[in-house]
Batch of 2 targets.
Target 1
Amino acid sequence: MRFDIITVLPGLLDSPFAHSILQRAQKKGLAEIVVHNLRDYATNKHKSVDDYPFGGGSGMVMTIEPFALCIEKLKAERQYDEVIFLTPDGVTLNQSVANQLSIKQNVILLCGHYKGIDQRIRDLFVTREISIGDYVLSGGELPAAVLVDAIVRLIPGVLSDETSALSDSFQDDLLDAPVYTRPADWNGHKVPDILLSGNTPEIEKWRFEQAVERTKERRPDLLK
Ligand code: ADE
């Protein structure tokens, strides 16, 4: 799967994709992440990508021209399934949205800044608007990194044990059961006996019950 991310701060995205699972996914050729500097598509002398809002008001608005030029260049090179704008007024990201997107081939992600982006970019190019939660960040770069991470780990072959993404919290609308590792007794704080029993069916039953209990307690909204 290929991601083209359009941003005024490409440096912000250097690190999130250069480690761990996202780095390995790229090395294996399962994900391609290309970051484009929006300023390279600015046609004016000062390479500015924003301007004052029509009608007045505070803050600057990102202009349509550089986004349009970058998106059109990319679209001339390959077909895109989605053009996604990261914005706090989008649909809130959840596991179901990540699952839907993980079967796409090529997506463009637009990162906004300042007071927002010219509405015509949204009207003409954007196919989906996604928020990562009900809070406002300084720009769309961190949300884009969050979205890419949530999607890439679902691509078959990215995780070494393919079942492990399927058993993630939320995949079955349940939170995960608690997990433990060595030592079995740390200063008198013991691991539940059942996990040391070797009785796999009983362990699975216990894990399911714990997951239901935790979900009831913390996220009753997930239990429909
Ligand atoms: N840009 C700024 N805040 C955001 C959020 N919460 N989700 C997505 N994009 C954003």
Target 2
Amino acid sequence: MDLLEIVGGSRLKGTIPIGGAKNAALPILASSILVDGETVLRNVPDLADVRQMLLLLARLGVKSERDESGALRLRVEDEMNSHAEYELVSKMRASICVMGPLLAKRKRAQVSMPGGCAIGDRPIDLHIQGLRALGAEFDLVNGDVLLHAKKLKGTDVFLGGRFGASVTGTANVMMTATLAEGRTVIESAACEPEVIDLANYLNACGARITGQGTPQITVEGVEKLEGAEHSIIPDRIEAGTFMIAAAITNGDLELQGARMEHLRAVVDRLRRIGVIIERSEKGLSVSSARRLEPVDITTQPYPGFPTDLQAQAMALLCLADGNSAITEKVFPDRFLHVGELNRMGAHLRKEGPTVIIEGVKRLVGAQVMASDLRASASMILAGLIAKGVTRVHRVYHIDRGYERIEQKLAKVGANIRRARE
Ligand code: UD1
């Protein structure tokens, strides 16, 4: 197993290219099941989660290959299998994105129920509620969700849950509705840019989707979808992570490809604490030159502050000049990084879904263990500024969602290297 070793204290300076968005790529890859002919996807990041999705798709009869230009070409070659098995689904929750496409195209989907994960139990009731509304029969067989339908019919679907809209739930219902008969109106749909990107790809294939990016999405069913070319949007969470890397090291980074319009809530919070963020020729420039002010953050569905940047923001606020509070409204148990940051000298106190952060003058390097993808990123950020050496163990989590993070950071001056345990 690999670990990352970081010697803290370097000021980051330079340009970092932002890769394609993991959370846009995964449902778009899954939707290749719906499509006749060849799909060509550009800007698909080379991540462990993407490779995992391609493995699952291969089992489901989708052939894929990277061509010389780096584009990913996908084509359905065999429609016999509609079973996403435990062995693959248990490794990645986003495997659930194949459920809607299998049901829509093959009229049958058997998907192992994703279990709980490091950020709390993550139900799929909204996915199933939406697909049943479109006419699917539902059963639970040996831990697998079994859905089948002779015919799917458009209808009104409400997708609001206890914690707001569901991103992959919206994706599943939207993908299924493209091939259902008639009109589907999804109310309380997720508004994330990744949902827009999926809708734009499906429309390029011949779907008729409007309202993407708003809480009401309308899908007029079509007979079939034909392969198209599409380029995945830049990853706003990767961009946000490097924005925080610039802020925490008092550095100066240009994030090539980062889009201000996808990061408004993050930009607002970071500017409030004293980080300078401007549009640049190729993306965004982010710098800071002084000790930062404290701020309160509440994570919310888009366009609110993303839960996927909560852990990273916490690492930053550990060093602010005063007390901050972070409240998690999307995954209230997503605080596994709190104990690890405290081991690096942070003063964090958890009170229900809120963490009170008492700013300290410095963090100190330690051996830390990452328990999920974004928690790992927060350990790396803390390590960049901590005194001495930080070793982040179990970095396979980071490889799920960041492409060569240590190379990108080393290029702008971080003292970071990958080593074997
Ligand atoms: C997606 C992202 C993930 C991000 C999350 C929230 C992908 C591949 N992953 O995950 O990185 O952290 O959005 O922005 O895009 N919920 C229910 N019932 C359901 C589904 C969800 O109650 O059927 C709850 C969840 O427990 C959570 C909230 O709704 O509290 C939002 O979850 P959801 O948007 O579904 O997350 P994912 O789509 O799994």
